[in-house]
């Protein structure tokens, strides 16, 4: 479950630069909100997008920031076109792993997702059958 924080607009740092998502969350959260988020994180929930695996709010913030910086550095190394090509290759690799039919099934589920509900939840409510066995690779 994602804890959704509404960010009205990006905050600017004292230097006039836009803050990262994590920095904006830090500056907008009250002490009480941070305590509540930290408690959720300690129970194993991901409360910061990109912070998966962190055992506390602060750990998740650090992980998310590091992952974001890593992606930005890689994009700078490859350039925009190279970075897009890398993503395309990843998609093609996954398509080869699960086959054309599995890739279509995965897209069907992804196309149903919204900010409020996952594709699986919407499919269940709407009675749309999604065969996840088509796009899960066998454990080796």
TrEMBL record:
It comes from the Eukaryota. PROSITE patterns: SMALL_HYDR_PLANT_SEED. Residues 31-45, 58-78, 86-95 have a biased composition (Basic and acidic residues). GO terms for cellular component: cytosol. InterPro entries: LEA_5, Sm_Hydphi_plant_seed_CS, Small_hydrophilic_seed_prot. Residues 1-140 are annotated as: Disordered. GO terms for biological process: response to abscisic acid. Residues 12-21 have a biased composition (Polar residues). Belongs to the small hydrophilic plant seed protein family. PANTHER family: EM-LIKE PROTEIN GEA1, EMBRYONIC ABUNDANT PROTEIN 1. This is Uncharacterized protein. It comes from Zingiber officinale (Ginger). The lineage of its organism: Eukaryota, Viridiplantae, Streptophyta, Embryophyta, Tracheophyta.
